[in-house]
Amino acid sequence: MAKANAEDRCRGRREAVDKLAIRKLRAEGLRPTDIASRVGVARSTVYEALKVPAFQADTASPAFLSVAAQTKHCSMF
Questions:
Q1: Cβ–Cβ contacts within 10 Å for residue 22, how many?
Q2: What is the distance in angstroms between the CA of the first residue and the CA of the last residue of the chain?
Q3: Which of 17, 30, 48, 63 could covalently link to 34 via disulfide, CB atoms 3.0 to 4.6 Å apart?
Q4: 3-state DSSP call for residue 4?
Q5: What is the pLDDT of residues 8-59, one digit of tens each?
Q6: Rounded CA gap, 25 and 69, in Å?
C-alpha cells in the first residue's frame, strides 16, 4: 500500500459511467430507459446511479479526483 501511495497508483477502478451526466439527463425529464440508451449502459446501471446521493456522485468528478491525487492517500477510496 505504501508503494502504491508513493507511485500514486492507489485510486481504485475508474467509474464506467458518468453518474453526474445520468442525473442531469434525469433532471431534464428523460426516463431511465431513454437515459440508458443515450448513455449506452443498462437500465439497471441508470437506476444504480440515481440511487447514490448527489454528494457522493460529485466525489467522482475530475475536480475531486485531482484534489485527492494531490493529497496522496487512499483511505478515502
A1: 25
A2: 13
A3: 30
A4: helix
A5: 666 677 777 888 899 999 999 999 999 999 999 999 999 999 987 655 555 5
A6: 29
| Residue 63 one-letter amino acid | A
- Quote the pTM value: 0.54
Task: Name 70's Cβ contacts closer than 8 Å, sequence gap at least 6.
Answer: none
d(CA 35, CA 12): 26
Please tell me the distance from the alpha carbon of residue 60 to that of residue 74, in angstroms, as a whole number.
14
> Rounded distance, CA 65 to CA 59, Å?
7
Q: Which three cell numbers stand for residue 1?
A: 500500500
